[in-house]
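Handout, section B. The chain below has 119 residues.
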Amino acid sequence: MANSKRELFLKRRLRVRNKLRKVNVGKLRLSVNRSNKNISAQLIDDVQGVTLVSASSLEKDLGVVGKNNIEAAAKVGAAIAERAVKAGHTEAYFDRGGRLFHGKVKALADAAREGGLKV
């Protein structure tokens, strides 16, 4: 029986996340969510189950509302890195979800690294 694209994506996301959790016990997780219109990132502490900082292309102060491109992803990555460093967090592991590491996801990760976050 053939799986739908959505089911395959969800399986891939869980597979990626479970492999990362085994290797990075106790570290913070930089989780990326990309939709057709927006991109967002969260720095999550899985031990306590809380989101520490977040950034999204929906925020008006970033100036990228309504834009879904690589520049918007880079601004979100820079914003998440700035907020994380300001909150005292400098290390995290990158959770790309079920997405491939290229394009907008890669731009976000690169901008977060340039902003001082070890991803």
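Note. The mean pLDDT is 93. Compare this with the example in section A.
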